[in-house]
């Protein structure tokens, strides 16, 4: 629950809370305000002070409130992270033991102990590079859309002081090079949460594919951490924070379809311009495209002058077609990986009109065929394509205050409900 000093002290009936709040305030003044988390236990209540103040608009002006999360503990003691280093209340061993006990209590008292979430990928329906920035990055304008291909991430609370990550995918880093770990660190930094996790990543989105699998993982981790903490942060805050660790991550906090600009971190939600029941097939060769190498080959003066907003309007009016699915990174990607150009050309030539559009997603190396779920027959017949990644997918969206759902599980739930209805 959120509480401000003024709201607590307005009622004489709240003297118990006020005394506890005063202890909490003293802890903050003692130095905890500059740490990630201050925890105070007093008068049988535990107060967790969140580092960032709560800002509320009141009578036309912005007010800031200290934020405490309060829970009954039956204990009457004083604890914190940084302030204990400077206090003479206990020696270091006692401090560490009580901190571990408190962290364990946090885990044991949470309303949820484990959580399994779908972590979706994305495609760039069109991607225009509009300029080069002074910082060396490029400005882009792109229609991002979430798709039904995704990973599954399982989170469970851990009494440890470190996250642990496992995965079924070889070669995926398990330390803070992984965006999942970086996202959880970011959440703790922003909110003061003391939760750490055991995480298992069931990887289905290929790496180096231009499908944003890692970015989707990071967004999912932020959502999970927020759910474990009772949704302390708003979706907007999660979106803003996520841009600090990756420019594609903020997109996943849209509702699934968005017009993204700048480096990709400026996200404008739009109504989905493509029907959700249109299938696609994703083809990714074994070879990957290095994003750095692709941009090194990119020449801004070679791209056409079609306004990306015009592409968005054409797509909304007329539906998806080859003419709107422009990716300015295709040409440099084809220089880096010539076989990718051949794959796209052969898909266009072999589709016999079954694909409405064939295009590369992101900086490669996935080629997307929209309009049909099956790949061309030559991918099955020729040895050089024996190890390509092939997946059917659909466009996907989410509802406000809900995370993305695995399309397969949603269909299964629908079938189960239909069966149950038949017996009523």
From TrEMBL:
Cellular compartments annotated: Plastid, Chloroplast
Entry EC number(s): 2.7.1.148
Membership in a protein family: Belongs to the GHMP kinase family. IspE subfamily.
Catalytic activity annotation: 4-CDP-2-C-methyl-D-erythritol + ATP = 4-CDP-2-C-methyl-D-erythritol 2-phosphate + ADP + H(+)
Is Glycoprotein found in the keyword set?
no
Its predominant location is: plastid
Q: Which GO terms describe its cellular component?
A: chloroplast
Which domain of life does the protein's organism represent?
Answer: Eukaryota
Pathway(s) the chain acts in: Isoprenoid biosynthesis; isopentenyl diphosphate biosynthesis via DXP pathway; isopentenyl diphosphate from 1-deoxy-D-xylulose 5-phosphate: step 3/6
Supply one GO molecular-function term.
Answer: ATP binding
Pfam families reported for this sequence: GHMP_kinases_N (PF00288)
Give all residue intervals belonging to the GHMP kinase N-terminal domain.
Answer: 178-254
GO biological process per UniProt? terpenoid biosynthetic process
In Swiss-Prot or TrEMBL terms, this protein is called 4-(cytidine 5'-diphospho)-2-C-methyl-D-erythritol kinase
> Record's InterPro entries?
GHMP_kinase_C_sf, GHMP_kinase_N_dom, IspE, Ribosomal_Su5_D2-typ_SF, Ribsml_uS5_D2-typ_fold_subgr
Sorted alphabetically, the keyword list is: ATP-binding, Chloroplast, Isoprene biosynthesis, Kinase, Nucleotide-binding, Plastid, Transferase, Transit peptide
């Amino acid at each position: 629950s959120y509480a401000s000093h003024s709201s607590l002290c307005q009622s004489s009936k709240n003297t118990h809370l006020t005394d506890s709040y005063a202890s909490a305030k003293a802890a903050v003044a003692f130095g905890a305000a500059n740490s990630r988390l201050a925890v105070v236990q007093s008068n049988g209540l535990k107060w967790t002070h969140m580092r960032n103040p709560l800002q509320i608009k009141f009578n036309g002006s912005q007010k800031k409130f200290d934020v405490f999360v309060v829970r009954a503990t039956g204990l009457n003691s004083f604890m914190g992270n940084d302030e204990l280093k400077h206090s003479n209340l206990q020696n270091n061993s006692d401090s560490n033991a009580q901190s571990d006990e408190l962290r364990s209590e946090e885990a044991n008292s949470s309303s949820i102990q484990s959580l399994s979430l779908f972590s979706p990928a994305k495609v760039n329906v069109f991607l225009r590079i509009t300029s080069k920035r002074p910082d060396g990055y490029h400005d882009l304008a792109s229609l991002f859309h979430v798709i039904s291909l995704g990973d599954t991430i399982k989170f469970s609370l851990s009494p440890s002081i470190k996250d642990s990550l496992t995965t079924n995918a070889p070669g995926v880093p398990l330390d803070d090079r992984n965006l999942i770990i970086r996202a959880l660190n970011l959440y703790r930094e922003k909110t003061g949460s003391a939760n750490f996790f055991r995480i298992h990543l069931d990887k289905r989105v290929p790496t180096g594919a231009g499908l944003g699998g890692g970015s989707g993982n990071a967004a999912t981790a932020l959502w999970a951490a927020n759910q474990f903490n009772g949704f302390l942060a708003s979706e907007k805050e999660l979106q803003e924070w996520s841009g600090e660790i990756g420019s594609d991550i903020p997109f996943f906090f849209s509702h699934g379809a968005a017009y993204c600009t700048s480096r990709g971190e400026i996200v404008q939600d739009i109504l989905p311009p493509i029907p959700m029941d249109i299938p696609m097939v994703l083809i990714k060769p074994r070879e990957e495209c290095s994003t750095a190498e692709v941009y090194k080959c990119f020449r801004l003066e070679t791209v056409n002058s079609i306004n990306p907003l015009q592409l968005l309007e054409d797509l909304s009016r007329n539906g998806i077609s080859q003419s709107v699915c422009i990716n300015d990174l295709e040409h440099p990607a084809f220089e880096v990986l010539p076989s990718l150009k051949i794959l796209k050309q052969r898909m266009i030539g072999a589709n016999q009109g079954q694909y409405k559009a064939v295009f590369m997603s992101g900086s490669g190396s996935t080629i997307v065929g929209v309009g049909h779920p099956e790949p061309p027959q030559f991918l099955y017949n020729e040895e050089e394509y024996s190890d390509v990644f092939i997946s059917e997918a659909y466009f996907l969206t989410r509802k406000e205050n809900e995370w993305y759902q695995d399309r397969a599980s949603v269909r299964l739930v629908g079938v189960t409900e239909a069966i149950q209805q038949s017996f009523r």
